[in-house]
Write a structure and sequence with these properties.
Keywords: Endonuclease, Hydrolase, Nuclease. This is HNH endonuclease. One of its GO terms (molecular function) is endonuclease activity. The protein is an all-alpha fold. It has one domain. It has 2 helices and no strands. The protein is elongated, with a radius of gyration of 14 Å. The mean pLDDT is 84.
Length: 38
């Protein structure tokens, strides 16, 4: 059987950008990973 899935209500790229921008601890580390993640 195959089920149709609804698209998520949130944009995962936007969520990642928000999380990265809110990082306080290890901020440099997360900013360096941004290009690889997004």
């Amino acid at each position: 059987m195959v089920a149709k899935l609804h698209l998520p209500e949130y944009n995962s790229i936007e969520v990642l950008r928000t999380v990265i921008s809110e990082r306080e601890k290890y901020k440099d580390f997360y900013e360096n990973l941004t290009d690889d993640w997004i």
